[in-house]
Design goal:
Strand content: 15-25%
Order of helices and strands: EHEEHEHEHEHHEEHEEHEHHHEHH
Largest sheet: 6 strands, mixed
Oligomer: single chain
Low-confidence stretches: 299-306
CATH architecture of the largest domain: 3-Layer(aba) Sandwich
Mean pLDDT: 91
Structural class: alpha/beta
CATH class of the largest domain: Alpha Beta
CATH superfamily of the largest domain: Nitrogenase molybdenum iron protein domain
Length: 306
């Protein structure tokens, strides 16, 4: 069995299921576990240095231009898929700016010999993420392993959801998750669910729907008790670098979260941007942010700080 993963979350699922020896192709963004970086890269960014040298506004403009001109954000490395000879390809159709669009995957497959199976992983909530782990296990002959992984993750989810389930609204902080800083986007899909499970109220995101562009005035009007800065694809240092941009916006200092010192950072590149096993890490971290009085001993803080 030869597997090509076209998104980092699928790569992490493969490792969690013990399929790493069958993984013959990954993307340039597949960096976890560390061994994933040793795998053959079949997908690369169309932008220089994968936009790492661009400000958020520049990245947004480049992506908007690509969408208008129907230009892909990612591309297959010439000859890489032919050389990989995959039996199974793990792809996605959820977001055209997060991985190779599904239609381009199908076009690439038509060039290949053989008839590789394609599975599209398109979760919109936490349940969907866990279901996808089971789906990959079924496809790749790892049903028992997938069941064990999901059982473990569900147990951890329960350790968060249990203590928060009966919290009254008055004890649930109002939360704004900033997924992009220029322009402002707020988290969608599974993000509102994580906030609810962690004992909060997402004041701007919509469960199951894509992240949404909002006016900064809407953030101010929502009066969040907690602000989580988690730009899509950014790690903690890059997220922290965005703080001055937000501090310069009118009304920043008036936010309850700012007044109360409840502004946090989350490593979205490792968690919120990757619908895989580490999404439960994000849930645990958010729970500590929202209710340190309950969850201070849950896990050691990994990716966030005030």
């Amino acid at each position: 069995m030869r597997i090509v993963s076209l998104l980092p979350s699928a790569t992490e699922i493969c490792y969690a299921l013990g399929l790493q020896d069958s993984l013959v192709g990954v993307t340039h963004e597949c960096d976890y576990p560390a061994d994933a970086a040793t795998k053959t890269v079949v997908v690369e960014s169309c932008f220089p240095n994968d936009c790492k040298d661009m400000a958020p506004g520049e990245v947004d403009s480049k992506i908007a231009e690509a969408i208008i001109t129907h230009t892909p954000v990612y591309r297959f490395k010439p000859g890489a898929m032919e050389a990989a000879k995959p039996d199974i390809i793990l792809a996605q159709g959820l977001c055209d700016v997060c991985a190779v669009p599904y239609k381009f995957v199908i076009e690439e497959i038509r060039k290949l010999r053989g008839n590789p199976q394609v599975m599209s992983l398109d979760p919109r909530d936490l349940t969907g993420i866990l279901t996808d782990i089971r789906r990959v296990g079924e496809l790749c002959g790892k049903v028992d392993e997938a069941g064990a992984v999901v059982d473990s993750l569900e147990e951890r989810v329960g350790e968060v959801a249990g203590p928060t389930r009966d919290l009254p609204a008055s004890k649930r902080p109002r939360v704004a998750v900033i997924e992009w800083t220029d322009p402002i986007y707020v988290g969608g899909h599974w993000v509102p669910e994580l906030i609810e499970l962690a004992g909060g109220i997402d004041v701007l995101g919509v469960l199951g729907e894509p992240s949404q562009k909002v006016e900064w005035s809407a953030v101010v009007a929502s009066k969040p008790d907690v602000v989580i800065i988690a730009p899509c694809g950014y790690d903690i240092p890059r997220a922290k670098a965005e703080l001055p941009r937000l501090q310069a916006l009118a009304g920043w200092n008036d936010l309850p979260a700012v007044k109360n010192g409840c502004v946090y950072y989350l490593d979205a590149n490792a968690t919120l941007s990757r619908p895989g096993p580490r999404m439960v890490d994000a849930l645990e971290d958010i729970a500590q942010m929202l209710h340190p009085e309950i969850f201070h001993c849950l896990v050691e803080a990994r990716r966030w700080s005030e």
